[in-house]
Amino acid sequence: MGIPLRQQMKVGAYVLKQHMLGRKRYPLVLMLEPLFKCNLACAGCGKIDYPDPILNKRLSVEECLQAVDETGVPVVAIAGGEPLLHKEMPQIVEGILARGKVVILCTNALLLEKRIEQYKPHPNFTWDIHLDGDKDQHDWAVSQKGVYDRAVAALKDAKARGFRVAINATLFNNAEPERMARFFDDVTAMGIDAIMVSPGYAYERAPSQQHFLNRRKTKELFRGIFARGKGKGWKMGNSPLFLDFLAGNQTYHCTPWGNPTRNIFGWQRPCYLLGEGYAKSFKELMETTDWDKYGVGNYEKCADCMVHSGFEASAVIDSIKHPLKAMARQVRGPKTEGEMAPEIDLSGQRPADFVFSRHVEQTMAEIAHEPKQKPVRGAKHGGTPAVAAE
Ligand code: SF4
Description:
single chain; 38% helix; binds iron/sulfur cluster; metal-binding; iron-sulfur cluster binding; metal ion binding; catalytic activity
């Protein structure tokens, strides 16, 4: 198990408290995206094709910490864009840790060796390095050769300096169970502290839509991988019931409010994957989103979704309600044989509504009225020049 005991206890105590307070909907992990700019241009990314004025915008330290305070979550995952391109990232991390929260900093690691001295190991802090598979698979996924080798070098350097280091792997439709299992063996041999997995999901903005998995394929793929991992000592960073869900053994509805997303547009509605409008505050997001309109079976855009940001919270809440079931999966691992759990009926779902560009147009209009700022140093999206410029 790749989730530290203190983190499990912190999250467990938080969830129990929410139940005792009778809260029907509450957040678990804040997805904080302080910028969209990146020094890669991955085919499966829905962020880096925004216009440059939007890619040059940042959330300030104060805005990031206010988002943490508004939600009260026990865990903050910082993503992007590439968070290490944000000059004030060390202050953001320190401020969140000072609030007693767990911080997971997601990075492609291209700038990690250069920036790492600005950070100190902390029991609540994890570097979460993006690695989608072995050298060829990862370099294909990020659309650039050499990235795997640089990420692995940075990963080893961070481990040698005493940091907790995880990898997160998004699996696409070309993933092969045998090859993924070998990759998990490799990163386990490197001494990483956790492997976090999620199936790729067709972001409506992602430029390359054909690489994402559908639900049946997802379940078969994960069964194939997990069957090969029995007894190998892989330290999985997802909850045991989420892994069991990926392997087709749990029928979960998503919990989109479980991982609310704050980025430069505001609070994303309804979840990290879909951008159907933005709220100005977390309270407004929770109170004015029509949550019943979303989720598998309710909305066409959700039909294939099994991603961690939608379903990990469902699994964690189920673990608290059914601790013996969770314990059994923790000890034995996900079930990889036998009939799968029933699938959710899609016959009543409403059709997709393509509304994603309105907030872009609105933000561009706001930027046009802002006083002129000094140009931001770094790359345009679409290659590596940001690395050189930084
Ligand atoms: S199923 Fe849930 S988490 Fe997935 S895209 Fe739909 S609302 Fe978001």
